[in-house]
Amino acid sequence: MGKLGAKQRKAAENFIELGNKKQALEKAGYDPKNLEKSSFVEGFFERETVKDYIQKRVAKISFEKIADESEIMEYLTGILRGGITEDIIVNEKIISKGPSLRDRNKAAELLGRHYGLYKDKNRTNKTEPIEIKVDVDE
């Protein structure tokens, strides 16, 4: 499997950005005469090297946009401990405010759920009598 040239890479990047094959090739500097041929346009994007490059780039972009578990846990812990602040306007002045007690409690609850601290337990100590019926044929 070969590598993409600079022009091919530019066309692939343009396609990821624009979502339009013909425009992507045009913007990358391909000959407008070739772009009139649908076989050229489709053929370009059917090349294994081009398809692989686009798939890997889209996967990387998606991965970078989605928070992973450790990032979420760090964020919730920051709220719980009051280390994360937000800027608010009070009397035309911007001040940094820590999380409210409600926000900190919610972060604690979410972290507790993640760590399995809250289990449904049957807390009743009532014991119901057990009735056993035996049918004996004599």
List keywords for this structure.
single chain; about 140 residues; mainly alpha; Arc Repressor Mutant, subunit A; 2 domains; two-stranded antiparallel sheet; 7 helices
Can you tell me about this structure?
The protein is mainly alpha-helical and about 140 residues long. It folds into two domains: about 5-65, Arc Repressor Mutant, subunit A (Orthogonal Bundle); about 70-115, no CATH class. The protein has seven helices and two strands. The chain has helices at about 5-20, 20-30, 30-35, 40-45, 50-65, 70-80, 100-115, and strands at about 85-90, 95. Strands 1-2 form a two-stranded antiparallel sheet. A hairpin with a 2-residue loop joins β1 and β2. α6 (about 70-80) runs antiparallel to α7. The longest helix is centred in the middle third of the chain and has 18 residues, at about 50-65. It is flat. The mean pLDDT is about 90.
In short:
The protein is mainly α and 138 residues long. The chain contains 7 helices and 2 strands, in the order ααααααββα.
